[in-house]
Design a protein that fits this description.
The structure holds 2 protein chains of 2 kinds. Chain A is an all-alpha fold. Chain A contains 12 helices and no strands. Classes of the chains: A mainly alpha, B alpha/beta.
């Protein structure tokens, strides 16, 4: 078990280094002078003086290897550089906004699990029934509609027509707990809808597959009660792949909340990212991409370790 | 099956085809200029001239929706195509050449998959600035790894196939093998991947345009239209509705097409039902004539099992007395396992108990027909009075639970024992079945035990509640020969230790029969062909099939093994007359005329052969 954990951690650390290197290299991989590239607008050549200034600011004049070493050293100190526009520390801004994005994702995940898991299990246990077919069709549709469409229509319906919740914005929890939850409801619900559909599908397939296994039949042959067979024998095994898929989706949500945060004006990491991309504020963009990618890697690590706890076979691999 | 899959493909196929056709034909249609403004008529509701209304600049919405389809599909399909070409090439090369090429192509793809997709796209937009060209590059970069992975896996699988090896042996060059042989084989998977990618690219393109980081205004795009309509949604909600409907509709159509394509290419993806969980009323099989005699332990009369209209097991009758071991012998496909499963009501849900009575005398001396008990009543008998041991011990234990807990669970399902008492009893049982260090083994997970140890544990679970009938379905088949002997010895020990225990032992191995059985039923193609006391039947078979089985058992003195020519006939294509006739060296004309009955030939012996006297 310990060997497995150490190995996984080493792999994750290696991945973090690769990701950091790629983010560093990205600007150099695009043909042409990076500074000129960032400043060009619609094919118009930028002012040479501005280009020189940017080059110096980004340290692009030093040899590539020196740049790389400096970059890694800064990273180790938690320094992600500062904004090209207003010189704000990128790390500080991320520290302020990241928790809000994580809260959004966590709330959505809880909602989606509460909806998708029981629904998927029930659909599998009643496979082929009318309810199963309706639920599967609904999940297919929920998966297909883009989140920003769901979000925009939700605003039109719940905020403008029914006036149940505010259209968006942010209320700090410590100032007004209920108001906080009210503004959280729509963006979290919007993300949860698609995520619940994913969980539903995965759970349904997985439960059907496990229910056909020999050990389920063997448990029946021992006279174990149906409820116990479902919980202890089917779900216990069927949930392993669901956990993986869920984690992968949560990982892509780290970047995928961009649209939802934008629609609902949620002041998380993504709004910051969109603005940075619009203004082509390169240090901000790379900082955010790096932080999210590292979280992504850590999440995968957490899944692998959870797997080892849930499935005794993995510990020996 | 395939015809149905084709039909199901038709509707989504037509819808997607129509969307593509419209996108292609837009310049030819008599539509107003999608960028032509008419500010005076801004936000006009639908009218005869503008069927979907006019937007915030007075532009015609219908025209913009249709032109938007063109833009969105153009970007999405170009990106998907670029990703497909690049990814397929990487995957093919990596999968075919392996080694260093695999390292470079596949690891590169996997690193790209490390990044959340939208982020990577935004990174590209930052570097290149917004616009359709940027979008195509970003999306292609994003989706190529997916193709590479799928293609790699498929190539690996295909290149191991015989016809590829054969071509290599004939000296075909790599590019020829890749292009002519491997590519066509991975094409179906790639087609599915392509339509998946197309849908995903459509969503991402409109998402980026919605953020204002994709298609540049005033070009029409669904994402941009939704973005524009947001600011006026209070006055003109329909402006929001049209592009939302168009986008969602297109993505739904593409996704449905994908699902159907996948089903069409993968016919194995059928479901196995879980109906047994809720089945309360048993299907009523046709009753068969019952004798009045009360079974001493178990009596099966006229058991028939059907799959659709095909009879897999026909008119099987068995008797098991307390303390007796009945062996049911036959090749694979003879119906012996189905017969065993039917006794416990564990037949797969696709099969039906068509006829028969399964009378069992329980502990209180009450006779019960297992074919007519409902699931709840059967459950009380299963693992209680009637227990079963299965063929594959590795698959029959739940991999995530400790062995001792699985035995304790079986104990607690039938009694009032508490958790710790049940665990203690489980350890005692493991000791009984000859597991050394039972205390520690009880805490082991199934994968930590050897095959023989697992089967011992399963036998311990089966005898945990002092069953009166033990059904063993090929309990030694999946084990090594030396372990087989040990497990057989364990069954023999069980027989002597529990002298009232009846055993139904299903096997294809006559050597096993000789060692353990008191009486034997030989099954062939779903019916019993011979029955009798074990010694007599083995020394003096009275059916050519039994005789042939015995001749095919390797023995010390035998000079050569006599294999039985041919195979067991399919239940859907049984020969007329005797089912064994086509493989039988005694067969004559009268054998194919009519199906022979099971004839009583001596006390306790029966044979389904009209020429049984000639066999000796």
């Amino acid at each position: 078990m310990l060997g497995y954990v150490v190995r996984r951690i080493c792999v994750a650390a290696g991945l973090v280094l690769i990701v950091a290197t790629l983010v560093f290299l990205a600007i150099h991989l695009v043909p042409g002078d990076p500074a000129e590239l960032l400043l060009s607008q619609g094919g118009v050549a930028p002012d040479p003086a501005t280009v020189a200034e940017l080059r110096e600011k980004l340290g692009l004049d030093a040899p590539l290897l020196d740049q790389y070493v400096n970059y890694l050293a800064a990273l180790l100190h938690g320094n992600l550089g500062s904004s090209l526009i207003d010189d704000h520390s990128v790390a500080a801004e991320i520290a302020l906004r990241l928790p809000r994005t994580l809260e959004l994702i966590a709330a959505a995940a809880v909602l989606a699990i509460l909806l998708g898991l029981p629904a998927g299990t029930l659909a599998a246990l009643h496979a082929g029934s009318l309810a199963d077919r309706l639920a599967s069709a609904a999940a297919g549709i929920a998966l297909s509609i883009p989140v920003f469409v769901v979000g925009t229509v939700a605003i039109l319906l719940f905020a403008q027509k029914l006036r149940w919740v505010p259209a968006g914005g942010y209320v700090p929890f410590e100032r007004d707990a209920l108001g906080h939850l009210l503004v959280l409801a729509m963006p979290a619900g919007t993300i949860a809808l698609g995520l619940a559909a994913v969980i539903f599908r995965m759970t349904r397939t997985s439960v059907l597959e496990v229910a056909a296994r020999d050990y389920v039949r063997a448990a029946r042959a021992r006279g174990i009660a149906p409820g116990r067979i479902v919980l202890n024998h089917i779900l216990r095994n069927a949930l392993l792949p669901v956990v993986t898929v869920l984690a992968l989706h949560l990982g892509s949500l780290l970047g995928g909340t961009v649209l939802v945060e934008y629609v609902f004006n949620w002041p998380g990491l993504s709004g910051y990212l969109v603005r940075a991309v619009e203004l082509r504020d390169y240090p901000e963009v790379t900082g955010i991409v790096l932080v999210i990618s590292i979280l992504f890697v850590l999440l995968n690590l957490a899944v692998d370790l959870t797997y080892a706890v849930l499935d005794p076979r993995v510990r020996h691999v | 099956m395939i015809a149905r899959a084709r039909r199901e493909l038709l509707i989504p196929g037509i819808v997607v085809g129509a969307i593509i056709a419209i996108a292609l034909a837009v310049p030819l249609l008599p539509l107003p200029d999608p960028t032509g403004m008419d500010v005076a008529a801004r936000l006009s509701p639908p009218s005869a001239l503008h069927p979907l209304g006019q937007d915030e600049y007075g532009r015609d919405v219908l025209s913009r929706i249709l032109w938007g389809a063109r833009t969105s599909l153009f970007v999405a399909s170009l990106a998907a195509a670029a990703a497909a070409v690049a990814g397929t090439l990487l995957g093919l090369l990596g999968g075919y050449f392996r080694g260093l090429v695999e390292l470079i192509t596949l690891r590169f793809a996997e690193i790209i998959l490390c990044f959340p997709p939208l982020l990577l796209a935004l990174l590209v937009v930052t570097l290149m600035g917004p616009g359709a060209a940027t979008l195509i590059v970003a999306l292609a970069l994003l989706y190529a790894p997916g193709f590479a992975r799928v293609c790699f896996a498929e190539t690996l699988a295909v290149r191991e196939l015989d016809f590829v090896t054969a071509q290599e042996a004939l000296g075909a060059r790599a590019n020829r093998i890749l292009g002519r042989t491997i590519l066509p084989n991975v094409a179906p998977t790639l087609l599915v991947q392509f339509s998946l990618t197309l849908a995903a690219a459509l969503v991402l393109e409109s998402g980026l345009s919605f953020l204002g980081l994709g298609v540049v205004p005033p070009a029409p795009s669904w994402g941009l239209m939704i973005r524009g309509a947001r600011s006026t949604m209070e006055q003109a909600p329909w402006l929001l509705l049209w592009p939302c409907l168009a986008l969602s509709g297109a993505v739904i159509a593409l996704n449905v097409l994908c699902d159907r394509l996948r089903d069409a290419f993968d016919p194995h993806a059928g479901h196995v039902g879980t109906g047994w969980l809720w089945k309360r009323v048993p299907a009523q099989p046709a009753a068969t004539a019952q004798g009045t005699e009360k079974p001493s332990l178990m009596r099966v009369d006229g058991l028939s099992i059907e799959y659709g209209a095909v009879r897999l097991v026909r008119d099987v009758s068995l008797r098991i007395a307390p303390g007796e071991t009945l062996a049911v012998v036959g090749e694979s496909g003879s119906g012996k396992t189905l017969t065993a499963l039917a006794l416990l009501g564990l037949l797969p849900s696709s099969l039906r108990l068509a006829a028969g009575t399964l009378l069992f005398t329980d502990r209180n001396g009450q006779v019960r027909d297992l074919a007519r008990l409902d699931e709840a009543e059967l459950r009380k008998l299963r693992g209680g009075e009637i227990a079963m041991v299965f063929q594959d011990p590795a698959a029959s234990l739940n991999p995530v639970h400790r062995v001792g807990n699985q035995i304790a669970e079986a104990i607690r399902a039938h009694g009032a024992l508490g958790r710790s008492a049940a665990t203690k009893r489980a350890i005692a049982l493991l000791r009984d079945v000859g597991l050394p260090d039972a205390q520690r083994r009880a805490r082991a997970f199934p994968h930590e035990l050897s095959g023989g140890q697992r089967q011992r544990a399963l036998i311990a679970a089966a005898i945990a509640n002092e069953p009166r009938l033990l059904i063993a379905d090929e309990p030694t088949t999946a084990l090594d020969v030396t372990i087989q002997a040990q497990i057989l010895a364990l069954f023999a020990a069980l027989k002597t230790r529990r002298e009232r225990l009846g055993i139904l032992f299903v096997t294809h191995n006559l050597a096993v029969v000789a060692e353990i059985a008191d009486r034997v039923c030989v099954m062939y193609a779903g019916e019993i062909v011979e029955e009798g006391p074990a010694r007599e039947l083995l020394y003096q078979p009275r059916h050519p099939y039994t005789a042939a089985l015995i001749a095919s058992v390797p023995e010390g003195g035998a000079r050569r093994l006599a294999a039985i020519p041919g195979v067991v006939p399919l239940p859907s294509a049984l020969p007329s007359g005797c089912a064994f006739a086509p493989r039988c060296r005694y067969a004559g004309l009268q054998c194919t005329a009519a199906a022979p009955p099971l004839e009583i030939i001596a006390a306790g012996r029966a044979s389904r052969c009209i020429k049984w006297r000639e066999i000796s």
